[in-house]
Amino acid sequence: MPLQKKATLLITNIGQLITMEGPVPRVSDSMNDLGLIKNGAVAVAGEEILAVGESQAVEGKVDLAEGCIAIDADGGVVTPGFIDSHTHPVFSRTREDEFEMRILGKSYMDIANAGGGIRASVRDLRETSKADLTKKTKTRLDTMLSYGTTTIEAKSGYGLSTESEIKSLEIINNLNETHPIDLIPTFLGAHEVPDEFRDKREKYIDLLINEMIPEVTKNKLAEFCDIFCEEGVFNIDESRRIMIAAKKHGLKLKFHADELGASGGSELAAELGAVSAEHLVHISDNGIKAMAEAGTVAVLLPGTCFSLGHSNYAPARKMIDAGIVVALSTDCNPGSSYTESLPMIISLAGLNYKFTAAESISAVTVNAACAVDRGGQIGMLQSGLVADIVLWKINDYRELPYHYGVNSVQKVIKRGKIVIG
Ligand code: NIG
Ligand code: FE
After folding, report:
1. 20 to 30 Å CA-CA from 306: which of 37, 207, 296, 339?
2. What residues are in contact with ligand 1 under a 6 Å CB criterion?
3. Is the per-residue pLDDT at 375 higher than 80?
4. Average pLDDT of span 358-384
5. Distance CA 346, CA 229 (A)
6. Which residues are close to ligand 2, an ion, with C-beta < 5 A?
7. Does the structure show a pLDDT above 80 at 329?
8. Does the pLDDT of residue 314 top 90, yes or no?
9. Do residues 41 and 10 make contact, with C-beta atoms less than 8 angstroms apart?
10. Across-strand partners of 420?
11. Angle of helix 162-178 relative to helix 130-146, nearest 10 degrees?
12. Residue 1 has pLDDT above 80, yes or no
């Protein structure tokens, strides 16, 4: 029986159609299940997916609207739009000077303790106009989109004053209205203690709890609250207090946890019912157990270890074996991981976590959707869901990690419209 709606866009001749239909989330072995259809087609009506399946079946049941755009995928790979579930895109100056200092022997923490790092980006952002920051952020979003990312989680965290955190969150919210990428805003006022509070950190925690969090939630500027929970930044007790306050104000929780040392951040994330905990390079066995039991998603960021020149990577396979939901993300930021490319992250996850290409694709689609509390709503090609689709210039999805450092995107479709290609 023909479908009621007519197709406004029809993609045919898809050699490998990766639908991701199947369990949400993908855990353990099911991460290798891509819901793959050979010789497939996708029909779109307006902003939504109308039909997905084998070419003949889709073409047999779909009527074409007048002016329907027909795309021949030429036997290539098609996937859902990728979801980058951990980014810091609102910043001003880049920090290539620090990258070179690290190459020459300084550590990330040496640079941070000398006043560089996050605090340097805070000084820059405060001096940059909203218009200039918006322009710079938009350029990063354009690059992300060109690499196949159609949804991101975007954090503030380089303002660290009520005014400049709000400025950052407003930029994220405004770009969500004007840019094809969907942005999910996260308040990261607890990214670092800013210069003016170094000798009175209690006062900054007080400001976070009693002014910034209430102000951000009153103005509905963020969906999540995140914190850099790490010895030397915010310790466990401080993190607990700040995150309990955030939760009371209705924010969902995310944690930068156990990145540079095992501080117990993953256990705390699980205890407070956080949606996700991220980095996790030094996660303990207890932390793994706690996250698996709580259903806290692990967002792994191999680009950060790569760009910091660290040889230690998160124990990703151990987490998968424990049944944790695992997502992959760029951590795009000016300090520890300056990349907009999820395909590059997929290469790094293959080599350093021993992820198959299919596991990595699950981690940037279905599971990344869970990391932003949108499991089953995005990251899949299924009739009725939003039409976020990427066509790749490759014939086998395993080329994604293999052909590294290049952009294999052919076309990006966001909400049913061709936005790249
Ligand atoms: O996720 N770890 C904390 N925050 C960022 C780094 C921020 C920066 O250095 O500017 C991260 O790696
Ligand atoms: Fe981060």
Report:
1. 296
2. 117-118, 121, 228, 256, 259, 304, 331, 333-336
3. yes
4. 98
5. 26
6. 331
7. yes
8. yes
9. yes
10. 412
11. 50
12. no
Class of residue 66 by CB neighbours under 10 A (exposed 0-12, middle 13-18, buried 19+): exposed
Closest CA to 357 of 299, 301, 398: 398
- Amino acid at site 293: E
How much is the pLDDT for 3? 79
Quick: pLDDT tens for 229-243.
999 999 999 999 999
Q: What is the mean pLDDT of residues 305-311?
A: 96
4, two tokens: 């009621």
State both tokens at 213. Answer: 């969090």
Q: Which residues make Cβ contacts (< 8 Å) with residue 268, sequence separation at least 6?
A: 229, 236, 239, 240, 243, 255, 257
Distance 192 CA to ligand 1 centre (A): 10
